[in-house]
Amino acid sequence: MTNDKKQDDAQEQMAPKPADAQPRGDEAGSFDSDPLTDADGELLPGPMEQLEIEIADLKDRYLRQAADMENLRKRSERERSDIKKYAVSEFARDILPLSDNFQRAIDAVPAEAAEQDEALKSFLDGVKMNERELQKVLERHGVTQLDPKGEKFDPNQHQAVQQVEDSDLPNTTVVEVFQVGYVIAERVLRPAIVSVANGGAKTVNAAKQPPMSLPDSDPAPRSKKTDSDKDEELGSNIDKNA
């Protein structure tokens, strides 16, 4: 009997236990069925939801970087275009006084004197030819001349230094150009110095208004108050307040 009992005990110990061999169905599926929560008890996203969130975040980053690269490309193209158009700005600005000197030399010679003197006329023609050639060179590099005589005054391109009373011209019309201006592409290289008309409709309306006059009972001008007058006035105000 003792030997048989020992053999049964040994066989029972060698046999695998059901709990160790395979977990129960409810225990095996508990990890998938129970939702995950944080320390505050709020539900956490599952694996699929977490992947969708990461995909959306990566897509947003990609779109932002693509937009930044597109803006950088456009800005670089615009800067490159500006450099190409305005590269000669400083050089052209230094050349403008030479064009002014040519024009001064042309204006300094009266037309009658050039007609009477062949040598002077030939000299004047040579100066005019050089001035025209200089303007062509500037135009090839995008520099054009501003000669706005008879046009409407534009504060962005013109600089007015004088007003001329002329009711026959519309108001703010350029009457005379003292110094021509220049533009390069869309930028003003040098504004044109001009005089403008102060007339037209503005002058007509002003003529219809009666002249300004002082009223008949115009009080005498007040004299400047002395320190004693100010003290007396201050004292009287204090008495009234009291």
Query: Which consecutive residue ranges, at least 5 long each, have pLDDT under 50?
Result: 25-33, 202-224, 234-242
- Major sheet summary line: 3 strands, antiparallel
Tell me the total number of β-strands.
6
Secondary structural class? alpha+beta
Would you list the SSEs in sequence order as H and E? HHHHHHHHEEEEEEHH
What is the class of the domain at 144-208 in the CATH system?
Mainly Beta
Q: Report how far apart the termini are.
A: 131 Å
How many helices does DSSP assign?
10
- CATH architectural name of the domain at 144-208: Roll
- The mean pLDDT is 76
Strand content: 5-15%
| Annotated CATH topology of the domain at 144-208 | Nucleotide Exchange Factor Grpe, Chain A, domain 2
The spatial strand order of the largest sheet comes to 1-4-5
What percentage of residues falls in helices of 4 or more residues?
55-70%
CATH superfamily of the domain at 144-208: Head domain of nucleotide exchange factor GrpE
Rounded to the nearest angstrom, the radius of gyration is 48 Å
Q: What would the principal axes of the Cα set say about the shape?
A: elongated
